[in-house]
Amino acid sequence: MSAPNRPKDGKSGGRSQPASPRGGAAKPKSGSAPARRAPSRPSGKVAPGSPAARRTREDYPTVQAFVAIGANLGDAQAAVKAAMDAIGTIERTVVTARSSLYRSAPVDAAGPDFINAVVAVRTGLTAEAFLAELHLLEEQAGRERPFPNAPRTLDLDLLMHGNAIKDTPALSLPHPRMRDRAFVLKPLAEIAPDKVPRAALARVSSQVIERIRD
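Predicted structure:
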C-alpha cells in the first residue's frame, strides 16, 4: 500500500493530532511548521536607535530670543552665571550665546552695583510661555518685589522674541526700555551686534558700565 500523500506545507491535512500521554495535544513532529504567534501590540516605548530616539532638542520649530540678566544682592556674579545655565534647562530652549559679565550702577533705583549679562536662545515656546518660565526662575532664586525697582537676587527680562511686536499689560516686545540702558545694549551688542545700532550705543555712552574680565 502506498504511503498517504502529505501536504507540502507540513500541516496535518485536516486530521486531528493524536493525544499526548498527558492528555494534551501532541507536539508537532520535527520538520513541521512552528505555530504562529499573534502579533504583539506596541508597548509605547521608543526603540533605541530609532528615528524618534535620535531626535535632539533642536528638532522643533524655534525662534531666536534674547534675555537680559541682572542681580545686585548676595553673590550677584554667581547668580547671573547660574541663571545662564538655568535658562538652558527650560523646556524646548537652548542657549546659543552668552555675553561677558558687566558691572553697572543701578538705574532709577538704589542699592549695590548690578552684575549684568545677556544670553541668546532658540526656543520653541511662545513669548508668554517663555516669560512665565523666566519668572519661575526668578522665584526659585528668591526674587522679591517689595516695591518698584527694589534690589533683587535675580532679574530676567525678555528683550526680544523673534520678530514679535506686543504691547499688553503682561508683556511688551521688544522690551520698551532696552534702548535706554547701557547694561542691556553693551552685552547685547557683544553677542548680536546686528541688533544694536551704533546710534543707540551713542545715546547711552554716558552711562557708566564696566566689563568684568575673567
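Summary: The chain has a mean pLDDT of 79.
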